[in-house]
Amino acid sequence: MQYRQLGKAGYDVSSISFGAWAIGGTWGEVSEADAMSALHRALDLGINFFDTADVYGDGRSERLIARLRRERPEAFYVATKAGRRLDPHTAGGYNRENLRGFIERSLQNLEADTLDLLQLHCPPPEVYERDEVFGVLDDFVKEGLLRAYGVSVETVDEALTAIGHPNVSTVQIIFNAFRFKPAEQFFAAAREGGVGILARVPLASGLLTGKMTAQSSFAPDDHRNFNRHGEAFDKGETFSGVDFETGLQAVDALRPLVPKNMTLAEFALRWILMFPEVSCAIPGARNAAQAEANARAADLPPLSEDTMRGVADVYDRLIRPQVQDLW
Questions:
Q1: Angle CA(80)–CA(294)–CA(78) in degrees, nearest 5?
Q2: 56 CB-side CA count, 13 A
Q3: Which of 112, 187, 244, 304 sits in a 20 to 30 Å window from 254, CA-based?
Q4: Burial 90-104 (b: 16+ CB within 10 A, else e)
């Protein structure tokens, strides 16, 4: 396992970390036994950073991570998110009282006294303009509720606005071989500001595993079934906003670029790690085998310049027209 600094938070985190959305909810049924085996195996393999949210299974993934901490002596970092419990989800809801309530609930779920990293969870765009929201987070750091804070964003413009606030330590953003825009328009600013980058949806909701076909189907409670057009939340969270059929074509175009003895999923994760601005990629894992497959990518050799150009060509031909201007 390789480790990189997580921006101004200062933590050395595994370059392949663990995204806990899949063990929380909206990815189909995952048993507690499978979820815990995935978490334990991740820790076995040197993963030391776990990203969750208070709405993943209504706190289920936070509670599973708390159980992991009870069962293992190793130290590890946990990032969670707040804001999506608001109903309605409005900018005005991001106030001191509500944020404190969300934080205290997460602390209870995680059985912790302080959060390693709190991220605003894809708030309405106007929240990023409000100095008072980030001032509240500064107060919570001083109070000891948080060690650091960041944001989880939908768009590059939101990311650029967010890092204008001096104490934003991290930005979580969708970045993968089907979503180039962050590298083109955000990474340089993040590097200059010392901001850590968490690359989420790194496998494009499973498209970049290469295991899906036109006949693939998904459970009714799986967002890949019910959110393809943004029916429940931003459509960019599902298959990175790429039309499923186009995504399959792009996957077929990527296959010849994959080096021998490397799976397409490993290739997709290693591609992300070619960008030094990325602190970590946070693929999900629903069982121990998936956790192992994800972790392997951290120790693979670098991809060649020709390979990187090939991936860019596939993006330019098939994906860029669909997604580049939306996020």
A1: 20
A2: 27
A3: 187
A4: ebebbeeebbbebbe
Please write the tens of the pLDDT for every residue from 207-259: 999 999 999 999 898 899 999 988 989 998 899 999 999 999 999 999 999 99
Q: Is 228 helix (H, G, I), strand (E, B) or coil?
A: coil
Q: Find where tokens 């765009």 sit.
A: 125
Taking only the tens place, the pLDDT of each residue in 80-110 is 999 999 999 999 999 999 999 999 999 999 9
Question: How many alpha carbons lie under 13 Å from residue 7 in its C-beta half-sphere?
Answer: 30
Q: What is the dihedral of CA 300, 324, 161, 236, to 10 degrees?
A: -80
pTM: predicted TM-score of the whole model, two decimal places: 0.93
- How far is 123 from 121, CA to CA, in rounded Å? 6
Whole-Å CA distances, 24 to 143, 272, 286: 29, 24, 10
The SS3 of residue 199 is: strand
